[in-house]
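Our consortium's second objective concerns turning raw sequence data into structural hypotheses that experimental partners can test. To show how far this objective has progressed, the report includes one record in full. It was chosen at random from the queue rather than selected for favorable results. The single chain below, 1030 residues long, was entered without modification.
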Amino acid sequence: MPSKPSKPQDSPAQRGPAFPHVCVVEASAGSGKTYALAKRFIQLLINPSLGPEEIPLKNILAITFTNKATAQMKARILGLLKKIALDKFSRIDEKEHITAFLGVDFAEAQKKALRITDELISNYNFFQVQTIHSFINAILSTCALRLGLSATFEIRKDAARYLEYSLDSLIDAAATDREVRGAFHCFLRQYLYLENRTGWFPKDNILEVVGGLFDKMNQYGGDFVPSGIDPGSLSDGKRNIISLMRQLKEDWPIGVHKSFEKAFDEFLRGHKDDFDYKELSGYLARQDIPLTKAGKISPRAEKLWAQIRAQFALMAEAESAVLIDPYLAIFSRVMSYFRARAEKDDVLFLDELNRQARFLFDEGGMTVPELYYRLAMRLKHILIDEFQDTSPLEWENLYPMANEALSTDGSLFYVGDKKQAIYRFKGGDATLSDAVKSGFQGINLVTEALNRNYRSRGEIVAFVNDVFSKNNLRLFLERCREAKKNAFELTPTDEDAVLKVFEGAEQELAEDSQGGYVRLQVFEGENKEDRSACIRQGLLELTKELSGRYRYADIALLVRKNDDAELVTEWLVEAGIPVESEKSLNIRNNALIKELVSFLKFLNSPIDNLSFVSFILGDIFLSASGLDRQGMHDLIFSLRDKQDKEKAVYFYREFRRRFPQVWEDFFEEFFKNVGFVPLYELTVSILRRFNCPASFPEGQGFFMRFLELIKEQEQEKNSLSLFLEFFSEAKGEELYCRVLGVDAVKVLTIHKAKGLEFDAVVLPFMEMSVEAGKMAASFERGHTVLRSLHKKYRDFSGRLDDIYRHEYVKSFIDELNAIYVALTRAKEELHIFLPQGVKRNSYAARLFACGSRIDRGSIPEGTRGKCAAGMRSEVELPPSSYVDWVKFLGQSLKGEFGESRLLRNKDKLFFGEALHYFLSCVGTLSLKEKDAVLKEAFQRAQDKFPGILNMEDCARILERFSSDKRFSPFFLSGASQAFNEAEVVDKSGNVKRIDRLVVAEDKVYVLDYKASFEKDTRGTEQVREYVSLI
């Protein structure tokens, strides 16, 4: 991979534009946009126009769109700040570039960077690099009462679960509420007759539409507006069309084409007063009646046909709107239940944060100064990453602050790339960038273009340049026009819109970027199954080949859909290739977690034989118990025979009879205490009892995520049965284990790969799937308007066809953008598999226009051998040690009856804890102020531990500390600095707390307080550990 040059691309911002200004950066893939944002952030902090002590940390906000991007930007800012403060630049030209960019002398920049570092450490909460959701959440938290929320409202992600509950509640209400029942009847009439649905479960369809409407509402921010059209008027309009057609038949033109006349007559014979657009012949959608050369049409007939065409269009547009109304009627009622439940639970959902925030800035709402007062900050500089994926609603919420900043000599700085706009389905609008540029008239505008690729090798950059060159795109669009079965023909205006997105797509090569390899292979087949089989074989062979040059972890397989990711994951697993994907990271799919859940299901319901059997046949139980798997199989089969003869056989009873000691060691305490011990502690005890972390270190991340999930759901799912029900139905990212320190091939969607890079990238299914969708949403006059775009309506309405065309072009661009993002993730090697039918070329085949194979460049040596030298040293964390809470609590309960030393000495424990707290409140002593220190420390300890300590004991302790020569240097004021409850971190990330840490000029002393005189080697070992850490 080409190393990122120390001297990045020069930019106008380097000359220090005067404030206020708007700076727009077009950053192509791999061009260092995060570095540009980090430089900008530091430039604003080291602003030479500010005083040497002035650090505007609270005045700068950087917005990102993912938590990972936030972490990367913070790390880049801190890393660059460290380079400046410690003069740790690896190359002199980078130092010179940064110095020139900052516009100050390096020595001055170094001093300021050190002060900024201290300020960041002291006030890290004002280091404002955060996701848009985090920032909006902060706004809503300070303004909760304005939105009818409590100050402690909770942000949740499971809106789908609430929507399903609300729909079920509405269905229940239909039994007694005539209005609700009428809404469902109206929906069913449309479902069966207008939409011609035949499914037995319309509820699933309703729920799917309700979920889609919820997403649309939160993307656009406005409430939905019903069409306002009486469905009865549709019937009147259609009857009028039939009447006009009968009149036309009476004045039928001479020489009408036979096919048209046949379609016209068949329509009149089959329809007396109503019709379905789906049944209409395409001939009836023609602009003019087709005539032979000798044909003639009267003025009256021509006028009638014009009226018929107009009525067809009018009714098509009306019906396309009315079609949505029954869903909107149900949706509005579902939302009433949804809001009531959310208000009761005091929750807000992640998907609706921006929509809720919009209400704050509505006319007559909150002003920006008031918002800043509540946030305890004032923004002067706003930086936004990935602006091409910003939604209009998100920008609408940020705009008041941006406008306020620019009106007070501040700045707006945003980075984006239209070619990488792939989140339109979430509301992203790449056209915002140009709109914002023109929206701040009179403000100094600075534009930059970062078009040098620091990520990919030269052959990959050249290949992408060729694919997205203006010439190749024109040829691609021409091939699409020439295709006989093209789904939709683009107009010259549409093609210009496509070409405009990729203007300036050509990237420059970075220094030392030679090399790299690109291979494209075509996989033909009669059908999808044949092509899939060929791709599977080719992919497995290629993956094994690449593993000889790269670690598995440096290989990525990028796909379009989650279903494709699951399929590819299955292929790799079957071939024994380690893989990391959303499927393999899902804890519910993990074999060890399945065994753990089986055990919990058994504890919840001991008559669940299947769960008990699943557990005792699993690796967790067999590893801990030492029993033989075959022996367990024999037991189960014998019990199955017994079950055939008897009505009820509970397997656990027979197991307990045959293996009493194993039952006693591993089951008995859990069996007796389930329901009495909290689920989290119960699960921790199971992991400890079966020695899971040590026996299965590869499952450590899954165990941790499972425990985290239990903890997260503890408040609501506070019983074993409730949690098991939740776990069986849970979906999405809450089930994903994010940390896996394994060498495994990455399988992920192109959308998830955005912002990432890999040594070798394989695209197993290079396809373009252009779909405009069946429904269009637009934001009009403060409301969201929906229309059906079914082809049966578009054929008869030019307006609907224009709307569809607009959506189709946007989808066409989305697909090209996704391909661009996929091709630009590779650093060393790029491999493309192009599936293609025998008789017809796909869109992607037209874009690449190749034969059966492309080989570009030479196969590199790879990075496998270089990894050990180039990688940072990593510390492998040992498995977590868990407390067996069930056993511990059992012993504690016995202690209530005098058998537990722990609880028998509880008074001593409380005294020791109170004394520790008292001493932690004692700072550096002065003989003159000793009494005041004693009084304050004692009062604080008395407030926290009432009745445990007395003043005389505390005074005696302080007197000894100040007079005894062994202790006085650590407590009396002098040259030393004392820190109470000092926190230090070991190499594994565990936090240790030292009772008192005294730092002298040339020595450091560690003090550990003990309230007992009992001999305990653990205390000595603890102090030694603290000393080793210091």
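The partners drew two points from this record. The chain is about 50% helix and 15% strand. Residues 798-823 form the longest helix (26 residues). Both points have been shared with the crystallography group to help prioritize constructs.
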